[in-house]
Amino acid sequence: MSKNNYTDDDIEIIYWGEDEEEENVEKVVDSAEKIPVEDKKSEPEEKFDLKKEIFSWLKVAVFAVFAAVFIDHVLIVNAEVPTGSMENTIMTDSRMIGWRWSYKFNSKPERGDVIIFKYPDDPSKNYVKRVIGVPGDRVKMSDGIVYINGVKQNESYVVYKDRDGNKVARDDSGDFDEITVPDNSYFVLGDNRNNSWDSRYWKTTHFVSEDSILGKAVLCYWHNGPEFDLLD
């Protein structure tokens, strides 16, 4: 077998790129070192501005007052029942919320609704009673029993208590002859028939006018403490 003589020129040298990669890395590092780094300037601390702080709190307070007035005069009405005239539906010293929009958009009070309205004999006071007669109804009371359009009413919500809260017999002292409820008016009674100053006894009129109704009572939120009861 003959010997093959190889020279350096005959040898092919293959480079795997290691030196090239190292060279590229060095170039990148070199370039990065040449990029000038901006000095970060420390942000100055904001000084406390008393006027600005007060103005900020005033804006919150004004908004809160505006929201409270809007809610209380446009959406709801707050009412208190200091007597037992509406027991046991609404207990003495209860506070409640009425929804002012219940009778908007052509909706009218119905028999059985508990409404908040301006007291006819003194409009500065708000009263809470139950609607018994609506416009056109013929209403009378005999032996303490209510009749509407000649039909005896079964009023499961009615109780008979004295001023001390003790149960007593049905009283017929509030009886009255048949009357017809006028247009845009309502005849109202308290649920505690023996102890309620209502349509039977008012001097100015025996009816609640539609425009004096503030809203429908929907929620009791206080009675000897916070208690939340929806009114039917």
Class by helix and strand content? alpha+beta
Order of helices and strands: HHEEEEEEEEEEEE
> How many DSSP-defined strands?
12
Distance between the termini: 119 Å
Tell me the fraction of residues in β-strands, as a range: 25-35%
Shape: elongated
Could you name the CATH class of the domain at 79-230? Mainly Beta
The helix content, as a percent range, equals 10-25%
Q: Whole-number average pLDDT? A: 82
Largest sheet report: 8 strands, antiparallel
Estimated radius of gyration: 42 Å
Number of helices: 2
What is the CATH homologous superfamily assignment of the domain at 79-230? Umud Fragment, subunit A
| CATH-assigned fold name of the domain at 79-230 | Umud Fragment, subunit A
Name the CATH architecture of the domain at 79-230.
Ribbon
Are there runs of 5+ residues with pLDDT below 50, and where?
none
